[in-house]
Amino acid sequence: MTSHRLASGGLIDRATPIGFSFDGRPLTGHAGDTLASALVANGIRLVGRSFKYHRPRGIVSAGPEEPNALVEKGRGPRREPNTRATTIELHPGLDAASQNRWPSLAFDIQAIAQFAAPILGAGFYYKTFMWPAALWERLYEPAIRRAAGLGRLSGAADPDAYEKAHAFCDLLVIGAGPAGLAAALTAGRAGARVILVDQDFRLGGRLLCERVEVDAMPGPVWAGEVEAELKSLSNVRILTRTSAFGLYDGEVGAVERLTDHLPVTPAGEARQRLWTLVPKRILLAAGAIERPIVFGGNDRPGVMLASAMRTYVERYAALPGRQVALFTTTDDGWQTAASFARAGSPLAAIIDARREVPEAVRALAGDVPVFLGARVLDAIGGQSLRAIDIVGDHGRRRLAVDGLAVSGGFNPDLALTTHLGHKPVWSDERAAFIPGDLPANVAVAGAAAGRFTLAAALADGARLGAEAAREAGHTPAETPAFRAGDEPCAVAPLFHVEGGRGKAFVDLQNDVTDSDVALAAREGFVSVEHLKRYTTLGMATDQGRTSSVNGLAILAALTGRTIPETGTTRARPPHVPVAIGALAGLHRGRDFKPTRLTPAHGWAKEQGAIFVESGPWLRAQWFPKAGETDWLQSVTREVEAVRAGVGICDVSTLGKIALSGPDVGTFLDRVYANTFSTLPVGKVRYGLMLREDGFVMDDGTTARLGPDEWVMSTTTANAGKVMQHLAFCHQVLWPELDVQMVSVTEQWAQFAVAGPRSRDLLEALFGPEADVSDAALPYLGCTTLALGPTRARLFRISFSGERAYEIAVPAGYGDALARALMAAGRDLGVTPYGTEALAVMRIEKGHVAGAELNGQTVARDLGLGRMLSKKKDYVGRLMAERAALNEASRPTLVGLKPTVAGVRLRSGAHVLPLGVPPTAEHDQGYVTSTAYSPTLGSWIALALVANGPARHGEEVRIHDPVRSGDVVATIVSPVFVDPEGARLHG
Amino acid sequence: MADPVSDWTHRGGFAGLSRRIGSGEGLKAVERAGLAAATVIARRGKAADAATALGRMLGAPVVDGGKRTSGGDVTVLGTGPGTWLVFGDRPALVADLTAALDGLAAVVDQSDANAILDLSGPRLVDVLEKGLRLDLHPAAFAADDVAVTAIAHVGVTLWMSDDRATVTLAIPRSLAGSLLHWLEASARPVGLTVEAD
Amino acid sequence: MRIPCPYCGPRDSSEFAYHGDAAPRRPAVGNAAAMADYVYLRANPAGPMEELWYHAQGCRSWLVVTRDTRDHAISNARLAATRSPA
Amino acid sequence: MRYSVVSLLAGALTGNRRWTPAWRDAAPKPAYDVIVIGGGGHGLATAYYLARTHGIANVAVLERGWIGGGNVGRNTTIIRSNYLLPGNIPLYELSLKLWEGLEQDINYNAMVSQRGVLNLYHSDAQRDAYARRGNAMRLHGIDAELLDQGAVRRLYPFLDYDNARFPIQGGLLQRRGGTVRHDAVAWGYARAASDRGVDIVQNCAVTGFLREGGRITGVETTRGTIRAAKVAMAVAGSSSQVADMAGFRLPIESHVLQAFVSEGLKPIIPGVITFGAGHFYISQSDKGGLVFGGDIDGYNSYAQRGNLPVVEDVCEGGMALMPAIGRARMLRSWGGVMDMSMDGSPIIDHAPVEGLYLNTGWCYGGFKAIPGSGYAFAHLIARDEPHPAATALRLDRFALGRVIDEKGQGAQPNLH
Ligand SMILES: Cc1cc2nc3c(=O)[nH]c(=O)nc-3n(C[C@H](O)[C@H](O)[C@H](O)COP(=O)(O)OP(=O)(O)OC[C@H]3O[C@@H](n4cnc5c(N)ncnc54)[C@H](O)[C@@H]3O)c2cc1C
Ligand SMILES: NC(=O)c1ccc[n+]([C@@H]2O[C@H](COP(=O)([O-])OP(=O)(O)OC[C@H]3O[C@@H](n4cnc5c(N)ncnc54)[C@H](O)[C@@H]3O)[C@@H](O)[C@H]2O)c1
Ligand SMILES: Cc1cc2nc3c(=O)[nH]c(=O)nc-3n(C[C@H](O)[C@H](O)[C@H](O)COP(=O)(O)O)c2cc1C
Ligand SMILES: [Zn+2]
Ligand 2: which atom is nearest the Cα of residue A487? Predict the structure, then answer.
């Protein structure tokens, strides 16, 4: 047995010893322990250092509200900083270390900070470090940053997996103490769908920590029986190790720790699971958190919440001290005296600030020196408590103790009810904030509602559980009356004992003292929110669970206001800190976003394609051949092959929308800037689509394959946006139009076949029966032809400027089509080409694409002004006609050629006149797209330049300071290759 | 010249993706390949008539709502107002629909647009809830309900068998690999078998 | 936030795309000033507001949703296509 | 009282009892030369520069709650001037220059920390867009560096370079960008303005306007009627509400943006990083918290809080960018109500009603603009002509088509 473990009792498994280590020291605990209880059982006091003054600190609580006992759990990439020792379930091999200290926990150099405390008061940094200005980033700030912070991240990628899940229920019960268990059982028995969550690994809440009986059973036994019955109900789901952390609109966020308590994460299992719970009703039964009292030296290791002391004794059979005194203002504190007495280690003294204590309460203590109407002024000690100074009617007195249990009242754990903006209200009677206005579907039970007795908790749970069941359409057989005692629970509020010599901490973790609160008040930070921000009170990892109320009570006293007048700060999610990994779940690394693959992806991979992310898609960027060492070499070869012979390119990623219905023509006339109602069957037309604000949204082609069979294509990037826009136009603007449309992007695999020999390839592909002659399929024609077992759509359109076609087949044949095209073109030297070659050729032809359709350009800027119909209304027309958008000085599309051959142009460079300094006033535009043109044997570019079309022939400066580029280029027509368009037909 | 058109193999979205993860027992995913499919969108004001015509074709009433109706080899899924996704085990599905719905609805071939998986097994619901933001409890989701929704950022159309033992997901075929990746990650602890085309 | 799609039932808001106030109606042809108002000016009320949402990952309907911008409470949702013309 | 090491030491020796309120908590007078509505960063800075630069000290800042309780006190503290468009750049650069001398000017350490802002790119197209922007900055005399992947790796070795869905190719770095302690900006300006005679009036909500003829001559408030020769509004997310009181509509929607802070950690992230393939940006506060954020929730809201799906979206971006933060825990999340404009750029202009001045449309980027905006707004109010750095930020630009649309998203505020 370890030094402070009781010989019997508790809910630990004495048969299962567990080895673990703290700061490298090997120790032993038991199954059922937390790290904190195991440390207590081993007599370890000093567990951490405080944030600012590096004061020695010990364990204060037995739950997630713990401000002090934060440790780094685990090693290497699994190291988890700031983990509360009070919530770590002990497991074999657990390796925990203290943090924020150097060189060691016992001897921490930065502890000298506490001697400078008078100048390190609240907000001191706002008042200094201003001179000389340059030293802030170089000296002061790095020093502050190093001293601040708590634990360390490993710096390596988190090796564990996380997952997410959704669940739905009639009633979500948060907290499985007596109130939550009673509610879940009542609603569950009635047949309601119940989810019961508790952050603990064992159900029961305070029942596990108190000597109480329910239905004549010891608390833990009753909890076990209820758990067994709940588990037998198929309509009830129990989630242990699960913290509900946030109330959102209609949803509750919770995080389940799946494997944190296991020595090693089983392969394939996630570490944690993020739950989104969607309940019809929520019952908050989260209990209450005990409130400490602020007095001198109240941070000494050994000073602990009275209920936490009891928890260690009753649940974990671990004795937090051998000479323990109690400082209380509550009846409940006296229960701790009873626990210690039962454990054979009666308290050294009881100091109750109240002058009168009911006899029944006094009886709990047994034969212990009691000081009524007294206070603890100072706790004395260094790394461990040695004595306390008390004052009272008897005068001043020093008591030698090694532990001090403190009970200042209870704060109902109501934060979740405030996440949607509702505020709790102060109750003088209970000396606590209790539920005020609540969200519509939320109820609160038990200690969380400020009803502090066990009987009340059970009754609340049963009543509200039954209510929720009824609301969900079930009839509870009867509301069970759980039998339990009504223990005394009076409180006389005491927040602060003035006059001590030691520092009196309000916020233990952030080292905020009573004098910091006083200083803030003096300096005008008298709004609670100002107080919080100026002193950082309540901003630590515990979010003020044990400090906020004391802080505002002290502020209230200083400013002559009541507590309700002073008000509370706003609580926010997450209620308990949640691993960022859990909030991300699966979606990291390559799973960050889904990946779309074209039907012929496998074929392209076989061809050795280099792929590029294109929005959600992966597209073949180029197809390197053996011996090619540089992308430009491959791309140049691909371009030359297309321009000289024939190439094929997978364009399946283009958005495709099927349209049908009598009003398609009218509809297209309204959504496109140019006219479509006149498009004959068998024809394709290039279309330009504007946003309503007049700027260009997208371009593409629409083909009319039959009288009522239209298919629109969009750019890859804008496919979703255009579909949504068309649905808007149809459903919101013109529901009277009889138009049907649906995306068919997935249905069709599509390949461009381009080059002077493209028709030859088609002839080989489709065979002699098919007529792909220019007469049958002229430029901008379209048709449907049999191809193998299917039918292909054939469009004669060209992005490259060459004679070109696009062939579409049902996606299941996409891979076959690629292979068939390669086979049919073998003798023609068919060359697969990727998006780079595609881009080179469109730049050579002056076709605009994503870089020019950047949402900042109007049709006129792109040289497409003549496409804007004057004969009809369409989306964007009126706004595009605004004078400012038609000024010649707007940057307008031009081509650029370097004056010196071989010089490279880069997109993003700006265009300036020659012979002027490179300043903003001379900025005349920028380069949008560049390529090495094998056809011209030169780098070329498209650019948007002020007055561009009027300046062909002018030499300009292409200024690219971020890449140290500065070259001269000539403004030319944006169409570099075949301006007459002869090749389209030839 | 070799006949380029000789080996036109049709490939499903999950082609080549068969696998077994862990015990393989918790969940079974079987690709349903080769189904013909079409989107049917009622002409303006003709949703009810189109539903009736679809019902006639199936021999079971079809409604304008998120419901599944099966008849013979054809399954009609309501996917939006006046819109249905129809699956059928017959090559002529699109032609048959076009004939049956003449003047009532647009019929658009989608036979190759979707990759379809039948999911079944003892841990079906446990795995699905890791991606689906829908309540599949019988009280909330009837056996003939259809949902168009998303799993792990992938759009899905979901329906189930009458005995609720099989849940079918139709997803855009380009995303088959991504969906499978989610499925693998989610089913790994319980085991997964994928049988693809 | 769960949006009660009239076709699909209640769904998580992340399935929807937002378009904002449903009150402005696209003006008739020819009126540039009215069009600029329609495109750019918003009442942006703090309180109940009718607004357009698109069920992008569901039935692909545009909805008119009545939602209070102060607390996100949704009191109604209907198909935009069935609302009366302006 | 002047703040310095000396005063700090003197304070310490006297038990810190001699400190006085940082600013006077004034009660409203019946009339002022200028009333500034809104005790956020912009309002307080405006008042300060009215007093300091234009000698107009008979000014009241009316704040409905406590100063700094709005967006100035809840943002991710990033400052930078790496803007693209000529309409925007001068104002943000003016602002950055003012940040650089702010602490000495107002005698308050707001912890202006020029630790560098790095925007990552993940594709050639994005690289070129950043080159365009970096070049625009350089033409305006602003520092900008385009880094390749190797250089980014040297700065931030723990980003996901090798297993990423959208691999990092490089970044645009502005070394002069960084962070500033948000609350200190409000308190520092309030103190400096108050020292120059400005009345800081808290718990005073403007509920209506006084008018004579067509002109605004004062305001109705929860603390009575107050007259003023000029009334200036700088109420951020509440702009439409206040405009409504004056009878006009704005090209503004109010949207909620969430922000997040982790538990305190030892320094790991030296500068500010912005993910280019998702919505995520992050820095580490001097206290050790990772301060991060992402996209707006995307719907109109005055609730000052957001929802879980966006929290998840932001964290997905975070883990995709830097999987080393998986075991860091999110400590707190909150929301702010932003004045999202129709082109994503701000407005500093006369209001359509005489006597009223308009400062709005800062979207989720107005913190960095506080000194510059306050300076330019004070100029407009004092001289009735726009400051040279703000000539493009006009209200009529929407009707005219002179929008300043950095992202090219058009009149859809939730996309900016
Ligand atoms: C989460 C978040 C992150 C952000 N991150 C950044 C960032 O990293 N970098 C950046 O540059 N910007 C950022 N911003 C934006 C920036 O915070 C805002 O643009 C800027 O603070 C707005 O100006 P302000 O400070 O004057 O606003 P606020 O501080 O909101 O001030 C407006 C004030 O007006 C008051 N008010 C409103 N109505 C009335 C009335 N009727 N009567 C009296 N008073 C009234 C309000 O109470 C409020 O105090 C962020 C914003 C948020 C919400
Ligand atoms: N006499 C007194 O002054 C006094 C004061 C306070 C409490 N009590 C006793 O405490 C008990 C109160 O019962 P109860 O059921 O209301 O509370 P409880 O404290 O017994 O149970 C609350 C449960 O909620 C869980 N929980 C809290 N927040 C959670 C979250 N966000 N997510 C998941 N789980 C969460 C806790 O782990 C705990 O198990 C009674 O036994 C009562 O006698 C007495
Ligand atoms: C840069 C920055 C850092 C913050 N750091 C912390 C912190 O360490 N701890 C904390 O509790 N809150 C922190 N906050 C959040 C504030 O507590 C608060 O949530 C925020 O200012 C919004 O106010 P509200 O939540 O009261 O509405 C921080 C906020 C900002 C803007
Ligand atoms: Zn829907």
Answer: 1
Of A877, D393, A672, D412, residue with least CA distance to C39: D412
Please state, for a pLDDT cut of 70, what percent of chain A lies above it: 100
Q: What pLDDT, on a 0 to 100 scale, did the predictor assign at position B5?
A: 52
Q: Which of B46, B132, B133, B141 to mutate to test the interface with C (most CBs of C within 10 A)?
A: B133
CA nearest to C65 within chain D: D299
DSSP string, A298-336: TTSTTEEEHHHHHHHHHTT-B-S-SSEEEEESBSTHHHH
Task: Please check whether residue B135 touches C, CB under 8 A.
Answer: no
Token couple for A857: 């350009």
Complex prediction ipTM: 0.97
For residue D415 the two structure tokens come to 């996309």
Interchain contact, A278 vs C2, CB within 8 Å = yes
Does residue D72 have its Cβ closer than 6 Å to ligand 1?
A: yes
Structure tokens belonging to residue B141: 């989701």
What is the model's pLDDT at position B6?
62
Q: A314, A32 in Cβ contact below 8 A?
A: no
Could you say which ligand is closest to the alpha carbon of residue A196? 2
- Give, as one character, the DSSP assignment of residue A596: B
Distance between first and last Cα of chain B = 31
D70 within ligand 3 shell (Cβ under 6 A): no
Q: Which CATH number fits domain C2-23+42-82: 3.30.450.20, 3.30.2270.10, 3.60.21.10, 3.10.180.10?
A: 3.30.2270.10
Window D:143-162, CB contacts with A under 8 Å: 144-146, 158, 160
Contact A151, D327 (CB under 8 A): no
Secondary-structure percent of chain B, ordered helix, strand, coil, rounded to 5? 20, 35, 45
For every residue of A582-599, DSSP letters joined together read HHHTT-SGGGSS--B--T
Domain spans, chain C: 2-23+42-82
Q: Which residues in chain B have their CB less than 8 angstroms from residue A821's CB? A: 4
Q: Determine whether D313 is exposed, middle or buried from the number of CB atoms within 10 Å of its CB (0-12, 13-18, 19+).
A: buried
Residue A108 has pLDDT above 90, yes or no: no
Q: Which residues pair with C17 in a beta bridge?
A: C54
Q: Which of chain D's residues have a Cβ under 8 Å away from the Cβ of C50?
A: none
Using omega within 30 degrees of 0 as the cis cutoff, is the peptide bond preceding A103 cis? yes
Determine the pLDDT at residue A517. 98
Domains of chain B listed by start with CATH number: 19-33+113-195 (3.30.1360.120), 36-109 (3.30.70.1520)
Record the tokens describing residue D246, joined without a space.
Answer: 């004056």
Comparing alpha-carbon positions, the chain A residue that sits nearest to C29 is A873
Q: Which of A172, A198, A248, A334 for a ligand 2 pocket mutation test, highest count of atoms within 8 Å of Cβ?
A: A198
> Where do the domains of chain D lie, and which CATH numbers do they carry?
24-108+182-250+343-415 (3.50.50.60), 117-177+254-341 (3.30.9.10)
Contacts of C64 (CB under 8 A, 6+ apart): C22, C50, C51, C52, C77, C78, C79, C80, C83
Q: Which residues in chain A are contacts of D26 at CB distance < 8 A?
A: none
Residue A460 CB neighbours (<10 A)? 25
Token pair, residue D101, equals 């001398």
**Is D259 close to ligand 1, i.e. is its CB under 6 Å away?**
yes
Give the pLDDT confidence of A110-142 residue by residue, as tens digits.
Answer: 888 888 888 888 889 999 888 888 888 888 888
Q: What percent of chain D has pLDDT over 70?
A: 100
A576-596 average pLDDT score: 97
Q: Six-digit token pair at C86?
A: 């302006």
Q: Is the pLDDT of residue B4 over 70?
A: no
Is there an atom of ligand 1 within 6 Å of D201 CB? Answer: no
For residue B150, list chain C residues with Cβ-Cβ distance below 8 A: 15, 57
Please write the tens of the pLDDT for every residue from C29-50.
779 999 999 999 999 999 999 9
The closest residue, in CA terms, to atom 25 on ligand 3 is D334
